[in-house]
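From the shared-data thread, chain only:
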Amino acid sequence: MRYDLQIIASWIAPGSRILDLGCGSGDLLSHLIREKGISGTGIEIDEARVAEAITKGLSV
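Structure, as tokens:
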């Protein structure tokens, strides 16, 4: 995972509810769900990235 996303992840408490604006393909959300047990939703304008996030099982 990218270093900047690792820093953001370190600020998130386990079990948090997250709204990820500009989530892209959902890499951060996927990581937070796996590692921190968060519940999250992403918002993304790029349809191709939305499709990619959905294939990962994310709510976008």
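The mean pLDDT is 95.
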